[in-house]
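Below is a complete specimen:
___
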Amino acid sequence: MGRIHSFESMGLVDGPGIRNVVFFQGCHLRCKFCHNPDTWDYNVGTEISSNQLIEKIIRFKPYFKNGGGVTFSGGEPLLQPKFLLQMLKLCKENHIHTAIDTAGYGEGNYAEILKYVDLILLDIKHVNPKDYKKLTNKNKKKFDLFLDEVTKTKTPLWIRQVIVPNFNDSKEYITLLSQLIKNIKITNKIEKIELLPYNTLGINKYKLMNYNYTLSNTPPMNKIKCNQLQNKLINLI
């Protein structure tokens, strides 16, 4: 049994092709820019069995064209390692392409989980441990442990990072990020790199849930500047 937040039947941006996206409930990180604080609390999710979920996924299998399949997202899918592993195995038994969209902050058993993952969508929060904790309210060591396992598996990656004004939008930070990505490239194929401009679309959720939104005075990231930083990053790698 596992707990999920929601299910998207025709995802187009969370991996190649047309995909089911399963949003797992629960996340230990408290990222200042998170759009989905409603995924944080594990106990409020919808309980579902692995058999129920794979039956639902299989119904959409005819639409999985152009490399499509299933992406397990969140929340943080690695916080439910037993359920995630079972779902990955069931997908592979049914010849379905698998991806996980993760910040790499889970509960271990990564080596076994990654045996059944075709693609990792890796959400990098920050390169610097001090700023990582400032942004997420958590220590960076768990992310480093996950990344170490990723480099052992040679699993292909899409790398993503949200760019926030006056926090990680400098050329100096992009240089640091490029060094991390170059180290990953030594062992793993990086298929895509995306710098995502910070926006304020999640503010209303915080108001409805009576949560404090600490970036309320931060403007949305300029999309042109974000694209320029992405081009710089790609040129450095």
Observations:
- The radius of gyration is 17 Å.
- The first helix runs from residue 50 to 59.
- The CA atoms of residues 98 and 117 lie 5 Å apart.
- The mean pLDDT is 95.
